[in-house]
Amino acid sequence: MDDTLLQFIRHLRHHGVAISPAETLDAMRVVSTVGYSDPKLLHDGLASCLAKTVDEHSQFSECFDLFFFGHSNIHSADNHSDNQTSPKNSAQPSTQNGNETAENASNNEDTASAQGDAQGQGEEGGQGVGGSGAGQQKNDVLNEVIRAAAEAGLDNIQYRTQRGVYRRKILNALKDDTTLKEIQRLQDAGDDHKAQVLSQLREHQISAIKELIDRQLLLNNDSAIKQLRDATLQDTSLSAMEHYHRERLPPLIRKLAKKLAARHSQRHKRSRQGKLDLGKTLRRNMAYGGIPFHRFWKSTHKDKSDIFILCDISGSVSAWSRVLLLFVQALSDVLPSTRCFVFCGKSIEVSDLFKAYPADEAMAIIQDKHGLGSSDYGQALTTFWEQIESKLTRRSCVIILGDGRGNGGDTGIDALRKIYHRAKLVLWFNPESHHSWNTGDSEIRRYQSASHYVAECGSLRKLERLLDQLLTLIR
């Protein structure tokens, strides 16, 4: 098993990139083919099988740059060395380079570490710390540091205050005490040149350790910060969000919708199979002593529901309508036939816009064309009923999102009652907090009498929960 690749995949999952076992096997085949020597080729190869969406591609690139930061230098030196191995073998932090260094260390009496041995060889070749041997020695040092960091469990670092602890752990794994003693011994013996070279290599180690710790800390904390931010955004009322945070909602909505779709897709597959017909199964398997070699199922046919969505896009609640419509479009694979309407005055169907444009672009067009003015619920509900009357059946589900504040005008309650008596479900999602209902010009209590369910949807988590319940009801 390739520990380096598996560690990278663990980081991707930690950053929200879903990777299946089959995709992990594909990634292993990519690495076995292209190796680690060419970072760009490795990036493109792994991205082709691990990143499936635009958001995942962006996250993949960030993690790749942080995780494989020093590997290109290592591989470049390996490819130009006299004892060159195949790229995919020379690139592994814990493979051949480390073994060769350890073997050389055991054969050299003047040093007590792999770094000292590498310098001894450089000096005998007349190169000292300069020339082509120096670059190889530095990369050997980095290789050893990466291997020692894995041994020290650097993956688990979470806080900046832990940097000193992990620095000491990595130095211990590199036998730093032995290196210091060797430097002192060489100085006492009057061999200042070797002592200086060994000190320089130790400084390279410490510098590589610092950079590795900082990058690992950034890699781990970046994921933790994103998870905390996503959790906070889900629980925060949209009315309290700044514009900057609202712009970060679409990727989060797609992520939540994907999880919701996967959950209900599995439920749907199980429900289509039906329940086991025990009597028929036993009768048909009497010839086998009652052992159920052949199973028979009670399948039930359900007519699909139609969903009609009406959203208020006036200034007071337009942000919530945008979130609901984005959520619905992201759930298109598991939702039945859905028609979307928006209103400030008359209701206007916008289903074709979502078919012609990406969801974000369609929402921008809708807001520009139809998002001006104050809410007129009387006109909106009346025209909405006229548009869907011929299509509304006992299998239909109607969702209305609005605060129910009609500015003292006609409420349109008669049209809503007609919809209520014809449809299977009428759900009203109100973005205002419950204690604000029926205050001022709010008519939500009247609308509640002509709805099967009225619920608060002030945050992303509440809206997700409502859609989860809706999918359960219509399945």
Structural features:
475 residues; alpha/beta; Rossmann fold; six-stranded mixed beta sheet; two-stranded antiparallel ribbon; 22 helices; 8 strands; 60% helix; elongated; Uncharacterised_CoxE
Structure report:
Strands 5-4-3-6-7-8 form a 6-stranded mixed β-sheet, with helices on both faces. The chain has a two-stranded antiparallel ribbon with strand order 1-2. It has 4 domains: 1-52, no CATH class; 137-233; 252-267 and 303-474, von Willebrand factor, type A domain (Rossmann fold), CATH 3.40.50.410; 270-302, no CATH class. It is of the alpha/beta class. Helix 7 crosses helix 8, helix 14 packs across helix 16 and helix 16 (318-330) runs antiparallel to helix 18 (359-370). It is elongated, with a radius of gyration of 32 Å. The protein starts with a helix and ends with a helix. It has helices at residues 3-14, 21-34, 39-50, 54-67, 71-79, 87-90, 96-107, 114-124, 132-152, 163-173, 176-188, 192-235, 243-246, 249-273, 278-284, 318-330, 351-356, 359-370, 377-388, 413-422, 444-448, 460-474, and strands at residues 275-276, 297-298, 306-312, 338-343, 347-349, 396-401, 425-430, 453-456. The protein contains 22 helices and 8 strands. Residues 122-134 have a biased composition (Gly residues).
